[in-house]
Amino acid sequence: MPLSEFARRHRVALLAVLATVCVTVFLGAGTLGVTFLSDDVALITWGREAIGPGFWRPWLGNQLTGEAGSPPYYRPLTLVSHGVDAALWGWTPAGHRLTSLILHFLDTLLVFALVRVVLPDRPKMLAFWTAVLFAIHPVHETALWWISCRMELLCAFFYLTCVILFGVFMKERKGWFLFLSTLAGVLALTAKEMAYTLPCICFALALLKAGPRPPAARFRTAFLCALPMAIVAAGFMALRLTRMPVGNTLFALDVTPRYVLAVIRLTARYLAFPFHLSLRQLLRELPMAILAGFAALAGLLWPVRRRLFSLPVALGTAWTLATAILLVRTMSPWTLYLPSAGFCLALAAFAPMTLRPREWTAAVLTLLVLAAYTLQLETRKDAWRETDRVTRAFIEEFKAVTAEEGARKPVIVCAPGAVADIPALLHYFEMRMRLETGLRDLDPTALTFVMLPADHNRQAITFKKTSDTGWLVKPGDPETTFLFPHRGYEFQQYPSGTLVKEPWGTLRLRGANVPGESAALEVQLTPSVAKEWKNREWYGFNGKKLIAFPAITMP
């Protein structure tokens, strides 16, 4: 086939590839060099072990390294991915983040292919707009820029591959397509447990592709075709139940109707309005402008209102609900990476499918959405760069303390856990500090963490000695909040007046611990711990650097 003929026949697919390349370059600009954050170092360390002499251990379902406090996830393929990255890039964060961006590029192309397989009779531009919207949707921010979220990208890659191959199997009816589809499903399950929903997706797709048959025959065909994936998913569930604590499985669901409604509300909010803005605050401050904006939006939607009841919207909604059902146990913005593909399909139904003048409202609406998404991501890059600056500054200060003062058991009264909503040193603090200093005998202790605002001029923190064994930590800006260890791995924000008991003492909040409200924290050691720790070095992070507390103040 001549090159010109190939380009003509596949011009929409080539246009999708070009657009995805441009979006990927945009996403990487200014963020590749951000340092390792929060869980990154731990996952890379475990990944190096996963491709080392004990490579078989994660595949048997051990709790990662088996260390106390390790998240007991069965995600061996994700660990292998981190291990391969470590072999390729070492401890260079840009390389690890580049791998994530490449995976996102491939996932976007798979979304394009998925729409073409599921809806082959629809205009190719539907797949194009779905892919573009998926590539640049702001809800993917953390999944792309936080290396620890590799499992979302990797699971989505094999999940989408599984569904695409299954769709091809339903058309061609060749057994090896079903085998490859099931194999991709296995790999998706080893990347993240979110792939447990694959049997439902395959069953629904089989019903859609079963053809004009009696309902009973269609259900029987769909059941038999989805059965291999269902058996695989059941096997992985059994493995997880036997190898992992029951408290970390779906059988430990402890949710209420109110909690479920909150998850649904947040999911809809993150997908439909993925901006770091408060609609309530905007309505209070600019009511007329917001109402005018809604009126303009309604005017643009009115000519395409009938598309709300189209098949792409229905399928996109079904995909989002089916893939997000497991998020009822725990939901964060980055976990919506795979479900967002369905939302983007539904949104793409309102995009222009031709260049005809009657599509001008759809074109304006789509361009406005893309412009808003681009602006949101560009703005958020500043927050990630500020997180990088704060993290690097703290680490340099900590390294200087250990090198110049010989501190081996430093106690940090408060450390930068996050900047805005971006994790900095929130998890595996001790492991990170040992790696940065190269001191294996280092035994640091962080009593609490602060979540700082993204503006470096508003990050001041002051410390006041309240007793021989107590301090008062006072942020200089009401946007700063406190975070506390909770159940080992997780962290929790507590309301005003809460008394948090720790093995070494207590923490008591003064004021509301929410952004925009002034707060302070009382830190109090128990007499026995104070006596045990009296020879340790004490420091506090004041928003810019570590300041030393005189050892003489300790009993």
Describe the structure.
The protein has 555 residues and is α+β, with helices and mostly antiparallel strands. The chain folds into two domains: 3-259, no CATH class; 383-553, no CATH class. It is built from 19 helices and 14 strands. The protein has helices at residues 3-9, 11-28, 40-50, 76-89, 93-118, 124-136, 141-145, 150-172, 175-191, 198-209, 215-243, 257-272, 279-285, 287-301, 311-324, 340-348, 360-404, 429-437, 527-532, and strands at 411-412, 415-419, 422-423, 445-446, 449-452, 461-467, 470-475, 481-486, 490-492, 499-502, 505-511, 519-525, 538-541, 546-549. It has a five-stranded mixed beta sheet, with helices on one face. A five-stranded antiparallel beta sheet has the order 6-7-12-11-10. α4 crosses α5 and α10 runs antiparallel to α11 (215-243). The protein is globular and about 80 Å long. The model is unreliable at 63-71 (pLDDT under 50).
Keywords:
555 residues; 19 helices; five-stranded mixed β-sheet; globular; 53% helix; five-stranded antiparallel β-sheet; alpha+beta
